[in-house]
Amino acid sequence: VGQLIEQSQLPVTLIGSSFGGLTAAWLAETYFQVQRLVLLAPAFNFGPIWLGQLEAETLANWQKSGSLSVYHYGYRRYLPIYYKFIEDLANYPQDKLIRQLPTLIIHGRADEVIPLENSRYYAFSRPWVQLIELDSDHALTDVLTRIWAEMQLFLDIGL
Q: Are 103 and 27 in contact (CB under 8 A)?
């Protein structure tokens, strides 16, 4: 993705959901071609949330085996997540996301994976971030029409 962004001669808008939202935010820190972000239920503070939900025995088994089976909302099935992934997340502290570019965050009030409070906290100290809270869960699949409308407004595109 980074190579595609780097080669772009035009301003880039990144759209990402959940961990893809967190990834988009980090790509925007690195690539100045990125001029806007749309983040859907971004996985801010993912590492501490994830580790805080696990029992000590589960965490120990995960470290020992190297992987843990977790539900992936995009694929709608369980997939392995590797412990090195969590270790790597420590290299990306949220307080280092400081680039001031227009950002729209849409987050469900009933998100059972990434607490809405994480997006509220992120937006609070960043006046360039617009947060829209919707009555939905982490997948946001029941509010797609509203998401599309908000994105059109934010990106100033009409159809």
A: no
Could you read off the pLDDT of 21-54 as tens digits, one per residue? 999 999 999 999 999 999 999 999 888 887 888 8
Following DSSP, what letter does each residue of the chain receive, concatenated? -HHHHHH-SS-EEEEEETHHHHHHHHHHHH-TTEEEEEEES--TTHHHHHHHHS-HHHHHHHHHHSEEEEEETTTTEEEEEEHHHHHHHTTS-GGG------EEEEEETT-SSS-HHHHHHHHHT-TTEEEEEES--SS-GGGHHHHHHHHHHHHT---
Query: Can you give the pTM of this predicted structure?
Result: 0.86
